[in-house]
Write a structure and sequence with these properties.
single chain, alpha/beta, Aconitase, domain 3, 3 domains, 4-stranded parallel sheet, 18 helices, 41% helix, 13% strand
Length: 423
Amino acid sequence: MELTQEERDILDGKQGETLAKVMRTLVEYGEAFGATRMVKVTAPGHLVTSFGISILEANFRLMDELIKAGLKTKEPFTVDPRPIDNADVPASVVQKVVGAVTYGKQDAYERQLRAVGLKDENAFTCACYLPEVGNAPKRGDVLSWAESSAVVYANSVLGARCNRNSGFIDLFGNIVGEVPEFGLLTDEGRKATWIVDVECTKRPEAQVLGSAIGMKVMDEVPYIRGLDQWLGCTLDDAAKAYLKDMGAATASNGAVGLYHVAGITPEAADMGESLIAEGTKHYVIDDAELERVKASYPNIWKKPDARPRLAFIGCPHCSLDQLKDWAHRIPEALAREGRTRVAVPTVVSSAPDVLAAFDGTPEKRKLLATGTKLTYICPLMYMDNPATDLPVVTCSNKLRTYTSARYFDEDDLLRIIARGRID
């Protein structure tokens, strides 16, 4: 890798041994992927490692070394959600005890995060780009992020540039203020190697469409055609929410870090099919293909025919418009069954700043009146508690992929919440 004199000075230890180790890690990371230079990070960071899980002692020692050396990120950063909310997420005594032990380093780790540049106490969300949170990069910005659903959103919907980094690589890039240039940071790396034609007779469920795309293209870049008939050609809030959920599924069911949507996402709107590389592969998605994909999801509950005990909505975190939408849809589903309260304990997750904006609204009062709970946590971390052995239902394909939760599309999930059973 060709380094500037300033970069070589850092690597040679002229700004301290610890910063030299941080730079050496980034350089070797870049060289492993064929990078020839470092480029400046131009927007605030977002970190994936938000949880103080007790077994990660090496991480805590690393953070202590950074703090002792006085190192901080160039700009304040946001970080993924907290793992525990015993006030609003149903948990048994055993779950609470095991959760407290599992995430026993949470308070200490949050002190470490603050010491190296955490934005504020509300900066815990996987959807940092939501307007209420305020960490939304501009088109062309170079990022050092790692959270997969945030990376794919920033690349695709916002037109920023970021690779799918690992935890702590994201932090190191934001401390040095530079990242190695390769992959999705390059024009060539952003070209589509798959054409995906959506030929459905109705608007496809975002989570299932993303799942199908992710499982087919894996870590490549798809150019998606045919969504404009349902999303229009404007990136309004509804389109952004759809693409947020679709993208999270592409990133978790596969390893997609960037997708282009014809006529909608910034680069596709400007550059069209010139973004498509030579020799692309082709994938057609119709109603039957979506049904095939959905039918392939396994049921890994210990008792496959159990009644659901918990429903999770909001992985990734819901936007404010999505919260308001659920506040109407859940009561309407209950009314169709002659009920006023949910038959399955239901938890909707969103960013602390979004929840604050939701406070005092008539929609919040309407939603809470159904018995639905609001939380700021990451549902994945709740499900990863070793004592959590509940039959959980969700409309999140990401949560389904990483846990034992069963996926249902939004309409089916609403019926389950209202009836208390899976028909």
